[in-house]
Structures are given as C-alpha cells and as structure tokens.
Design a protein that fits this description.
The structure is a single chain. Helix content is about 80%, strand content about 0%. The chain is mainly α. It is built from four helices and no strands. It has a single domain, classed as Serine Threonine Protein Phosphatase 5, Tetratricopeptide repeat. It starts with a helix and ends with a helix.
Length: about 80
C-alpha cells in the first residue's frame, strides 16, 4: 500500500475549510484525497472521502451525486466492520 500521508493532509485541510463552509476550497482537496485513497487502496480514507464529499453534495442540493458517494462510503465501512 502506498503512503497515506498526502491524503491525510488533504483531509485535514479540507475539514478546516468545511468547518467554515468554504466548499469551493474543500471540494478539490477532498476529491484529491479520495482519488489518492482509492489508488493506494487505503479503504478508511476512501470511506472518509466518500462520506465527506457526499455530505458536501447533499448540502449543495446535488442529491444524486451525494447519495452515490454516501452509499459507496457506507458499503465500504460495513465491509470493514465499522
């Protein structure tokens, strides 16, 4: 498995922006972290990224994209036993 240091940093910065509801800055970081987590097969990161991005899409009233990401995150979390 590749290093997960970079997606962790992206998640930390993205969450700081999410607290301020700065979705314009948070979404690219979350997308990058999710992509890197998927490529490195870091399942907890994929769960976190999917859930956070899903919630952002729901908040922005983009229900189909949000639902898809939330369902992916939930399925992966259940597979991990969380």
């Amino acid at each position: 498995m590749a290093s997960v240091a970079w997606p962790r940093r992206c998640f930390i910065w993205a969450m700081a922006y999410l607290v301020r509801q700065d979705f314009v800055r948070a979404v690219p970081l979350l997308t990058e972290a999710l992509t890197h987590s998927r490529q490195s097969e870091w399942t907890p990161g994929t769960v976190l990224g999917s859930m956070l991005l899903g919630m952002v899409h729901v908040e922005r009233r983009e229900m189909n994209q949000g639902r898809s990401l939330l369902e992916e995150g939930l399925a992966l979390a259940e597979a991990l036993g969380n």
